[in-house]
Amino acid sequence: MTDIQTRQGEQATQTSSVQHTPTGFVKLAILLAICLGYFMVILDTTVVNVALPSVGHQLGATIAEQQWIVDGYTLVFACLLLTAGAMGDRFGSKPIFLGGLVVFTGASALCGAAPTQWILQLARVIQGMGAALLVPSSLSLLSADFPEPHERARAIGIWGGIAGIAAGSGPVLGGLLVNTLGWRSAFYINVPVGLLGFLLTLRYVMPAPRSPQRSLDMGAQLTSIIGLGLLTFVCIEGGDALSWTSLPLLAAGGGFVLAMLIFLIIERRAHDPMLPLDLFSSPTFSASNMVGLLINFGFYGQLLLMSLYFQQVRGYSPLLTGLALLPQAGLISVSSWLSGRVTAHLGPRTPMIIGLLLGTLGLLAMIFTSATTSYPILAAMLIVTGIGMSFTMPAMTAAVIASAPANRSGIASAVLNASRQVGGTLGVALLVSMVHHTFIPGMHLALGLAGGAFLLACALTLLFVKQNTHTSRPSTTPSPSHN
Questions:
Q1: What pTM was estimated for this model as a whole?
Q2: Considering only CA atoms, which of 108, 150, 153, 146 is closest in space to residue 126?
Q3: pLDDT, tens digit (0-9, with 9 covering 90-100), for 361-416
């Protein structure tokens, strides 16, 4: 009798499993819901760039204040990524993702309605909070809702491709919206997208497993925000409203150093640290994360510089500026795919070096840009820089993940994302601050620094990144989550 009951129970379980197997439509709805959130996050790192001159004109914002509109978002996004991942583990990725959609969508509406640049900057900070909640939880949900390895790989591939599409379409979409509906529409566009993502997530997305014992490490979180906020303040305000040797800047610089020292002490003593410092015992891991910071420093600083150049120096409209920047992002998908193929055969080191050298070449060539440089020459420089960036990224990501233990691949990916966002924040802050007084000479200096960042990244790759990292990954229990 017991055997009969056991078989009946197994049959009931199998029947239940079949009944709860998602249909093709449900899988599509799940993927669409998760990707909509990620699309908005990446789009808002670039869509605002072409709108800044219009924002500055209407709200009376200086270039430094326009930089805070960009960096207020990316700074908070970078600082909260690791803690947002821990919150997803502790409270569940679905409620955190839904909360992120609510925060991001509400903040987008506030950005669009902002009557002053101060309100806009505050709304962008809140947007950054929503972005940080969305990114780690989106990958955790993909892993949970697509448990079959082949389907999961396809879903994550689509999720990753969304980043390239969003980054590439940002300047063009932003220019089109600003030209036709005004700069506020670049923020309002997120509202219907966010609402659709929320409804689809609520209806179709299944929750991911939780780890209720996961610590949030609030002390490290607070010191990291204070430290990076002070460093960003130094980069933006230095040489503009304040002298580099002024007391406020020196105090901010000292506060940054103190906050980072306290952060390291907290993380070294923490039982469940936000940033496990032992990961950096791998030279490949440490170097690859520094490469991520350096290339985002150079690339995103350059992207905002060129947007300002086309509008303020050459007199382009926002739409024409977006189209002028399109060649830089036009080959991202092809270049990223090719880099992945090369990495699979040769390891990450070779494609990283190739990409970084191309990026260095493109950025240093831009030093010779003047107010009358022909656009085809500029387009060629933009293309080389864009290919260099996109050819480096997949190989660098592979190097980071492969150099970390398999059961810590999620936190390793989160560290890389945080490093990249910090780099982008500092690049926008420091490089654009160089054009506050004299644009073309300042732009030449900034582009030289951006090219130097790529060159330094290339040197770090040559010295510390292993050629065959993908074959020597530490063997431990694999993690289903890649934040």
A1: 0.80
A2: 108
A3: 999 999 999 999 999 999 999 999 999 998 998 889 888 878 888 667 667 777 88
d(CA 373, CA 381): 11
Contact status, residue 365 vs residue 435, Cβ threshold 8 Å = no
Residue with tokens 């590439």: 168
How far apart CA 138 and CA 96 sit, in angstroms, is: 9
CA distance 84 to 81: 5
Per-residue pLDDT of 222-246, as tens digits, reads 898 898 888 888 877 775 656 677 8
Rounded CA separation 480/483 (Å): 10
- CATH 2.40.30.10: does it fit domain 22-212? no
DSSP string, 292-351: HHHHHHHHHHHHHHHHHIIIIIS---HHHHHHHHHHHHHTHHHHHHHHHHHHHHH-SHHH
Crossing angle, helix 52-59 and helix 63-91, to 10 degrees? 110
DSSP string, 74-111: HHHHHHHHHHHHHHHHHH-HHHHHHHHHHHHHHHHHHH
The torsion of the CA quartet 238, 244, 248, 249, rounded to 10 degrees, works out to 70
How many alpha carbons lie under 13 Å from residue 131 in its C-beta half-sphere? 27
Burial group, residue 192, by CB count within 10 angstroms (0-12, 13-18, 19+): exposed
Distance CA 63, CA 240 (A): 9
CB distance 343 to 351 below 8 Å: yes
Q: What is the CA radius of gyration of the chain?
A: 23
Q: How does DSSP classify residue 22?
A: P
Question: Would you tell me the crossing angle of helices 332-346 and 149-181 to the nearest 10 degrees?
Answer: 150
Residue 314 tokens read as 């050459």
Structure tokens at 282: 């791998």
CATH class of 276-483: mainly alpha
- DSSP per residue, 403-441: HS-GGGHHHHHHHHHHHHHHHHHHHHHHHHHTTSS-HHH
Question: Quick one: DSSP state of residue 14?
Answer: H
- Sign of dihedral through CA atoms 225, 226, 227, 230? positive
Beta carbons of 29 and 137 less than 8 angstroms apart: no
Q: Are 472 and 399 in contact (CB under 8 A)?
A: no
